[in-house]
Amino acid sequence: MNQSIEKQSDLSIFGDPHVRMERALDDLRQGKGVLVVDDEDRENEGDLIFSAENLTNEQMAMLIRDCSGIVCLCLTDEKATELELPPMVADNTSSMGTGFTVTIEAKVGVTTGVSAADRVTTVKTAIADDTKPSDLARPGHVFPLRARPGGVLERRGHTEGTVDLMRLAGLKPAGVLCEVTNPDGTMARLPELIEYARSHDLVVISIEDIVAYRSAMQQAAE
């Protein structure tokens, strides 16, 4: 069976692509999280995603406990530039070209910076409208990611998917993500991700779903 068709069939328990997207956007507006999977020929992983503006300490603890622990803050290209966040390295040779910038920490309101509460403070500081570059220390325990301006229509990555989802939900275009792992430390694949989602009342969508949703919106506007 074609892998994309097989994945579509597995995700159908959450509805068709449009229904999944509408539920995901509604959940984000209500402050809940969503699980986003990508192509099997890409990273083949699922990321737990929350909106940055509604992020709670409990949700951050969930990201740290149930995921890889490398919590990333997805930002628009404009916001990353505004905060003067340079690339983590001059020559990005990662296989997926993920837009890592230097890591950050809030200068005020944190202790060591590594606790769930401290990381939430850093996230909220970074996305505030009046935040200046000098309000953030570098390095830190939060990993910003710079999204491509065209979103998933330019790059089919979780970074762009996260920013697109927040925009579509009418939220600040910033979100946090972390890769879901199994209890033994291995990466969770689709069967485990679906089980995890159902046990936590989360919807699972795919990057393909976001691409299709955005493409349909563009066609309708033409």
Output the helix-strand order: HHEEHEHEHEHEHEH
Biggest sheet statistics: 7 strands, mixed
What is the number of strand segments?
7
**CATH architecture tag:** Alpha-Beta Complex
Fill in the CATH topology. DHBP synthase
Uncertain ranges: 1-6
How would the global form be characterised?
A: globular
Percent of residues in helices: 25-40%
Q: Can you say what the CATH homologous superfamily is?
A: DHBP synthase
Tally of individual helices? 8
Whole-angstrom Rg: 17 Å
Under CATH at level 1, the class stands as Alpha Beta
In total, how many domains does the architecture comprise?
Answer: 1
Distance between the termini: 35 Å
Q: Structural class of the secondary elements?
A: alpha/beta
Portion in beta strands: 15-25%
Q: Determine the mean pLDDT.
A: 93
Give a quick rundown of the structure.
The protein contains eight helices and seven strands, in the order ααββαβαβαβαβαβα. With 222 residues, it is of the alpha/beta class. It has a single domain, classed as DHBP synthase (Alpha-Beta Complex).
